[in-house]
Amino acid sequence: MSSNEMSKMKFYCDDNRCIECDGCSVACAEAHELPTGVNRRKVVTLNEGIEGKEFSTSIACMHCTDAPCEQVCPVDCFYVREDGIVLHDKNKCIGCGYCLYACPFGAPQFPRDGAFGTKGAMDKCTMCAGGPEETNSEKERHLYGQNRIAEGKVPVCAAMCSTKALLVGEAQEVAKIYRQRVSSYGKGVQSAPYGW
Amino acid sequence: MDGNASMKGKVMRKYFYFIIATLFLASAAYAADSQIWGDMRVTNIFGYGQVESKNLGPLFTMLQSEYFPMIFFGILVGVPAAFAMHYLAIGPKVFPHGGKKIYIFSVFNRFVHQVAALSFIILVPTGFMIVFGDKLGGGSLIRLAKDLHGLATVPFAIVVIPMFLMWLKDAFFNFDDVKWMMIVGGYLSKEKRPIPAGKFNAGQKMWYWIATLGGMIMILSGAAMYFMDFDIAWLREITGLSQIDILRASAIIHNVVGFAVVALFITHVYMSVFAIKGAIHSIIDGHMEEEEVKILHSSYYKKLKDQGKV
C-alpha cells in the first residue's frame, strides 16, 4: 500500500450501529446553515418492517477516488485534494445537473433560486473542508459552510454521531476500526475504546 | 370540407397534448416528493452498476467524459471545413436574381420558419458554449448561456408542431431523393443540370425530420433535465427507468440528437447563405427565382407547370 493511498480521506457508515436518529444530517444542516431542501447528508432506512433485514445508513458525497462528477462536469468546476476530498467551485458551476447524473450516491443538491425555477449552483458535502475561497474566510463559510478540517476538527456529522456508526478519516484508519468491530462481534464488551 | 375540418381538429388536439405535456412537466417539477433525494436515493445507488441495472450512470459518465465534447468539436470544425473546401474547389451556384419569380412560401410559412430560425441562432451557439464551458472558464458567462438555451427553447416549442405539419406532405422521401443522393444533389459539379427534387430536396427533407422530430426530442429531453425532480409515474412505468435513469437517458439522447441537429443546422445555413447565392431570399420574401426552381427543384417545377401555375 503506497503512502499516497494511506492518506485518502473516506466516510464509512457502520449500518450495524446506525439507529436512524438523523443527528448527522441535522448537525450538517445546522453547522453549515444549509437552506431547506438541501440535504448534504441524509439518513435512509431500507427494508423497513422486514425482520432481520431492516437497516439504516447515512449517505452523503463519498469523495470517490475516481470521482465521476469531476469527469463529466462541462465547466470543470471540481477538484480533488491531495487527501482525496472532492470539492467544487460554486462560482464556476452553472447548475446543469450532469454531476448528479454521474453520481452513484445522489450527492449533488440543487437549490432552486431563479424566478423560473432555474437550478442554482450545485451544493454537496465538502467533508467540512470548505472550498476554493480563502480558508476560513467569510466568503468560504457563506458558500461552502464551515472548514473544520482546516481547524483540525472532525467533520461535524461524524463528530456528533451518538453510536459512532459514521466514521471518517484516512481510509486505512477507518478500515482498521471497522475490522476491529467485525472481529469482536459476539465476544462481549470490547477492551479497546470505540471510535478513534 | 368535412375532411378538412376533422384534420384541423386533429391538429389542434395534437398541439394541445404537446402543450399539456410541457405544462405537466413544469408542474410536476414542484411535486413535494423528491424522486431523487428522497426514499428513491438508495434504490438509485443499487441502480448504478449492479447486475440488473441499465448501467446508464457509468455509460453517461464514459460518454460525457470521453466522447461528447470531442464529437461536438469535430462537428464544429469538420463540417464548416468541408464546406469551405467545397466553396473553394467547386464554388457556389449563382442564379440570376432579376428574372421571373415564383411565390413559394406563404406569410405563415415564413413566420413559423423565422421564429424557429431565431431560436436556433440562440440555441446552437449557447449549446456549444455549455459543451465547451471548461475552455471558456465557466461561471456567469456559461450560466447566462445555459439560461438563454432554456429561454430560446420556448419560441421553438411553440412553432415546432405548426412547422412539422405545414411541410409534412412535402417531406416524405420518394424516388427523386434516391437519384438526388446518387449525385449528392449536384453539388459536386458546377453544371446547371435539372436536379431531381420536389418542393424540398433530399437534403432539406433530412433537415426537416431532424429539426422537427429531432427538435421535439431535444425539447422533451432538455425539459426533463431542466425540471429534473419532476414526478411522472407513467413515464417511469413505460420506460422502466427510475427518475435518475430517465435524466441520464435524457442527457445521452440530448447530446446524440444534438450532433445531428447542429451538423445539419450548419449545413442548412451554408446552403442557403453561401452555396446557392441568394437562396435565403425565398424564405424572406417568399419568392424564388424561376430559373432556380427549374434547376434545383425540377420535379416541383414540372408539377407547377402541369398545374398551369407558372
Strand arrangement within the widest β-sheet of chain B reads 1-2
Largest interface: A-B, 37 and 41 residues
- What does the radius of gyration of chain A come to? 17 Å
Number of strands of chain B: 2
The first-to-last residue Cα distance of chain A is: 21 Å
Q: What is the average of the pLDDT values of chain B?
A: 89
Gross geometry of chain B: globular
Quickly count the helices of chain B.
Answer: 13
What name does CATH use for the topology of chain B? Fumarate Reductase Cytochrome B subunit
Any idea what the CATH superfamily of chain B is called? Transmembrane di-heme cytochromes, Chain C
Alpha carbon gyration radius of chain B: 22 Å
- Top-tier CATH class of chain A: Alpha Beta
The total count of strands of chain A amounts to: 6
Q: What's the CATH architecture of chain A?
A: 2-Layer Sandwich
- Going by helix content, strand content and strand pairing, the class of chain A is alpha+beta
Main beta sheet of chain B? 2 strands, antiparallel
- Please give the share of residues in helix of chain B: over 70%
User: Helix count of chain A, per DSSP?
Assistant: 7
